[in-house]
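Running this now, will post back.
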Amino acid sequence: MTHRKSLGADDSATKLIATIGRAIAAGANWVQIREKDLPGRQSLELAREAVRAAAERGALVFVNDRLDVALAAGAAGVHLGGESVDARDAVRWCRAGNSPAEFRVGVSCHSIEDVSAAERAEANYAFFGPVFDTPAKRKFGAPQGIAKLKAACGAVKIPVIAIGGIDATNAAECLRAGAAGIAAIRMFQETSDPAMLADTLAQVRRANPAF
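Update: finished.
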């Protein structure tokens, strides 16, 4: 997941694209453009650049909230939050022939009930969290913890991706709880050694083949 303002004074699209490249090199196979303050035109330009950069490395790009931007940029899907268009409406609209067949719709969830609702809406996947404490997710309340992550994963058939305070030390724990993957901002954007992070995540993959 991207958060350009955490990059410091130079929060330009150029630096963000370079950061995306390092994240992919470190093991990320999905990139979520999460720049909610950007107006539509800038969001589209950034998403298009990200799609091009990710395609060179075999990764997929998702766009937060903006279904129109995701489709126009050729992204793999859209990720919907609490203030986005309703997931059921988005899925219905996409399946009416308005998007490529492989286009995915994901939903942010903060409870087992949310995850179940995402499945009923026929979303392709759900984010669940925050699993651990993280500044970016404190507004959503206390960390859910591994036990609730496991319960959420067991409650539905769609993939559940763990989010919130995920790093190289606890990623495997999330996968053992049933998560189909992990999502993180700081782990990728703040790493000083992408090669070491890539090696660590490769070890996690070998120990958890579903990751």
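The longest strand covers residues 104-109. More later if anyone needs it.
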